[in-house]
Amino acid sequence: MEGRNLEWLLAAASDAMLIADHTGKILLANPALCTLFGYDDGTLPGQPVEVLVPTSLRGHHAALRNTYVEQPRPRAMGAGMELSGVHRDGREFPVEVSLSPLSADPPLVLAIVHDITRRKLAEAALQESEARMRAVFDSVADAIITIDEAGIIERLNPAAESLFGYPEAEAAGRNVSLLMPAGHRERHDGYLAHYRATGERKIIGIGREVEGLRKDGSIFPMELTVTEMWLGTRRMFTGVVRDISQRKQAEQENRQLMQELTSANEELTNFAYVVSHDLKAPLRGIGSLADWLATDYAQHFNEEGREHMRLLINRVHRMGALIDGILQYSRVGRVKEARVPVALSRMLADVVDLLAPPHNIQVTVQPDMPTLVLEPTRLQQVFHNLISNAIKYMDKPDGQVTVGCTEQDGHWRFFVADNGPGIEARHFERIFQLFQTLAPRDRVESTGVGLALVKKIVEMYQGSVGVESVIGQGSTFWFTLPAGGAPGQTGKQHETTE
User: Regarding the domain with residue range 140-243, which homologous superfamily does it belong to in the CATH classification?
Assistant: First the structure.
């Protein structure tokens, strides 16, 4: 009856169990164990228990079994050892085995087997995760410090050791104020006490710039971010520290550079004032005197003298135009003007009217030109210079100048096309440089500032400028602007001529 009860209990148990005699022969195996090892056909009883042990371990297992028979007692099998079972199909898996002697003559043993595959996988995953975290902790460039809620240092990563000059073994167990200048130590302890008492965050989770103290006594600026974490019931804090000495130095250099730029701008403003007043005043005097001589003493000059006077007057006018061009160039980007909607059709009509092209040159502005939001004077300068050049250098009896635009990729592409003499490709970059002209100055009055001014204004609006040309057939100067006119603006409006 007792044997039947034991057999019934094993069959009802969810754990894998077997009973073996002192020779290692399996007498009973419950369904859970048969399923675990792949013997659902009931062939396991009568076989040696070593059939459940990997082949490489069977000899050692028999010796352990004999030792247990001599001193039977409840215990875990193979304490301190990794145990494995073998499935009927040859697959091995990790197990834990508990042994309990049963009163019988001869003695029997009850073995309870647990498949710990999932636990082993979880342990392996945890170890891998810890290894990865350790790799990050050890290799990250930022310094990482962990402290308990009393401010006692527990860990320093290698970057923190290098930054502060303390080996982890020397810093561990000491208050984190060790790494702070005197002025910060009391405040830090107060922050922690205040947070523990009230939960109000003044540092935790908030990045801030503070100062750190190295072992050698040097103080340096650093960026500190502190996060809170719980290990079971223990509250810990992790501080991530970044040395910002170079950034602070760069900021100081930038402030100094900005101060120098401000001074340079003031000097440039003063220079522009001097040029405008101190140079143009005597130049106007020279021009007036030359005009007076050319008019009142015309009968006293021979042909050569009259030519010299003409050249003198032209060069005075050119010098005045050059000074005006330099002043305009210096003001771009320095003197700001309010940005307002500019209807290009109306503005271009005013530009053409102001230029008053000769009767043999037709200037055509395409209809439906857009409205842009920018500084009107700057855009007027751009079109004035481009159309003026097309008129000035025209060599055809029937001159044609066309102004238009197209929209592409979020930009407007404007163009001024003419049927003039054209420009050789080798001069395309040179003509946009300051004071560069292609025609002799005594044949065509030019300061060499106009296209340089165009380029500077367009690039100020984050656009680009260029030229396409065929010798003898004409040139097309083009430039691009954001579709809204000013960087960061969108929206398109059109204005048609009336």
Answer: PAS domain (3.30.450.20)
Class of domain 2-121: alpha beta
Residue of 81, 109, 108 lying closest to 95 (CA atoms):
81
Strand order from edge to edge, sheet including 411-418: 361-365, 399-408, 411-418, 474-482, 465-470
Residues 6+ apart with CB under 8 A from 361: 391, 394, 399, 400, 401
Number of other CB atoms surrounding residue 390 within 10 Å: 27
> What integer pLDDT is reported at residue 490 of this predicted model?
38
Averaged pLDDT, 476-496: 61
H or E stretch at 26: strand 26-29
Residue of 268, 177, 191, 256 lying closest to 228 (CA atoms): 191
* DSSP H or E run through 314: helix 303-331
Q: Backbone dihedral region of 212: left (phi > 0), alpha (psi from -120 to 50 degrees) or beta?
A: beta
CA nearest neighbour of 463 among 477, 446, 449, 448: 477
3-state secondary structure (DSSP) of residue 308: helix
Residue 292, pLDDT > 50, answer yes
Would you state the structure tokens that stand for residue 108, as one six-digit string? 């029997």
- Which CATH topology does 336-495 take? Heat Shock Protein 90 (3.30.565)
2-121 and 336-495: same fold?
no
Going from N- to C-terminal start, the domains of the chain cover 2-121, 140-243, 250-330, 336-495
The torsion angles phi and psi of 154, rounded to 5 degrees, stand at -110, -45
Q: What does pTM read for this prediction? A: 0.45
Backbone angles phi, psi at 441, to 5 degrees: -65, -30
DSSP symbol at 57: G
